[in-house]
Amino acid sequence: MFRAFFSVDSSLLLLVMGKPIDQTLAEPLAILSERDPDIAQAVAACGLPPRRRGPLGFPGLLRIIVSQQVSTASAAAILRKLREVLPRTTPQGFLSLSDAELQTAGFSRAKMHYCRALADDILAGYIRLYDLHEMADDEAIGHLSTAQGIGRWTAEIYLLFSLRRPDIMPAGDLALQTAAKRMKALEARPNEKALRAIADTWRPYRSAAARFLWHAYRHPGLPEI
């Protein structure tokens, strides 16, 4: 039933908020729709999410750290200004920038410290980004979380968007919790533990579910079920 809903002519340019939709999510969301009527109803109302992919390595982690606790527009402005002084984002290059240059780009003292610490850890070999592909999800999350400024949420976002792992649920994300509350018609926004319990039934497609929940959070068509 729901597989037919996702059958889209690839020759058509389908857009979500001005961006091409992510057709790779069609199959996992179709499977989840068959399992979960709430997802099925929400997907029917909101459609597929837009494409989104994060860069690998230090640039990807730096982007996530910069994006913490600021708006999307603010993060984009900081990254744009950073590119003006550092066209190629490498650990060595970042460490060469002065406090004044980073402050001009919009870095707070805390983010300046965390990004420098991460660059140091990568260069010293404490954070082994090129070994992550050999690690299981929990091992990779634990390894990244040993760096200053990288908690579970940051590590999960990196695995989801940069490494494209298929079964990641950043359940500590407030937007995901809010979207889950609306989609599941819950009385209160689920906390991280509660959302992980809800998402357990979405294995092994939790990344697709997370991507959809972010999309639904921003979409005006998500019904109050």
Topology record:
Elements: H1 2-5, E1 15-16, E2 19-20, H2 26-35, H3 37-46, H4 57-67, H5 72-85, H6 91-95, H7 99-105, H8 109-124, H9 137-144, H10 152-162, H11 174-184, H12 192-199, H13 206-218
Antiparallel strand pairs: 1-2
Helix pairs in contact: 2-3, 3-13, 4-8, 4-10, 5-7, 9-10, 11-13
Features:
225 residues; mainly alpha; two-stranded antiparallel ribbon; 13 helices; 57% helix; 2% strand; globular
Structure notes:
- With 225 residues, the chain is mainly α.
- The chain contains 13 helices and two strands.
- The chain has helices at residues 2-5, 26-35, 37-46, 57-67, 72-85, 91-95, 99-105, 109-124, 137-144, 152-162, 174-184, 192-199, 206-218, and strands at residues 15-16, 19-20.
- Strands 1-2 form a two-stranded antiparallel sheet.
- Helix 2 (26-35) packs across helix 3, helix 4 packs antiparallel against helix 8 and helix 11 (174-184) packs across helix 13.
- Residues 1-14 have low confidence and may be disordered.
Low-confidence stretches: 1-14
What does the average pLDDT come to?
Answer: 91
Shape: globular
Structural class determined from secondary elements: mainly alpha
- Rg from C-alpha positions? 19 Å
Précis, in short:
The chain has 225 residues and is mainly α. The chain contains 13 helices and two strands.
